[in-house]
Write the structure tokens for this entry.
Amino acid sequence: MTDVQTFFARHFVAISVNSRFRDDEGPDRFFAASGLLIRIGDILGILTAGHVVEYLDEALNHRDIISLGCQLLDTFGETKLSDLGVPYDLKNSPRLHFHNDEQGLDFGVLFLHEHQARLIEKHNIVPLTYEASRNEPADLDVFFLLGLPSELTSERVSPSGNATVALTMLRLKKAEAEEQSTLFPRFIATIDSQTSLESLKGMSGGPIFGLNTERSNKYWIVAIQSSWRKSERKIFGCPVTHIYDILNELYERAASELVEER
């Protein structure tokens, strides 16, 4: 990985899942999705695409899947104390998601328990906060997408229980303004780097970083990747300003209701 990619990975947390179908032979199947650590008030969670959380819900309720294990991988940054991921109980842990293409929303959150947050903090993963998301300047001119393309990810674990993922960074160029057909305007950009990837599948939920070339010492997380249009090398993202507006309102409403109950 490049130094820039490793630096940006200080926000990155992947969601990995081992599963076994009824009558499956051989090692468990493997799936990995992109995500990042966020803070909402005093709550920490993993932000990813809404359709990723939908996939996890479907797998959890699939009648032919007889075992499902999930771990959060937080070892892509500069600090690496262990190769072991943080166990995540999909069945009993709280989560939410919004996925509506007409509205332009596609995000979900896996909420963390205190002990999980402590383990992730040991790898110096830095959460995205509401304050940072509100401070995004208008003159950002270069963007990068960080994620885990499926074609570079193992489909099954090895006999020893390991799997391969390849954190990948793509440079993006923000697309010219086009007619927005969704209620919440999306982040739209074209891929501006050489890549042999056939698909961006697996990059969903990955953070999109923006910076200004004249102030390259500062950066912002501007969106998370949602979908892409291969014929135009164009990607669509859900801006974090929309995400935090919604999450912050839910958080404040829940806090207010808790006070009233007391």
Remarks:
- The longest strand covers residues 215-229.
- The two ends are 51 Å apart (CA to CA).
- Residues 240-261 form the longest helix (22 residues).
- The chain has a mean pLDDT of 90.
